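Predict structure. Chain length: 59.
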Amino acid sequence: MPKLLLTVPEAAKALAISRSKLYELLASGVLRSVRIDGSRRIPLNALNDYIDALMEEAA
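Prediction complete.
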């Protein structure tokens, strides 16, 4: 079964960006995330939504 939630380092690697850039995207609200206890997780669909928004912006 594929992962549904990624850690910050995993999500940054998936997007080929730095962890600090990913945290900037989270802080600005551009990229959605959830908290489970003290851990930040990024849903796969949030990454897909972010990429879709980038593609629309580029069009």
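Summary: The CA atoms of residues 2 and 44 lie 10 Å apart.
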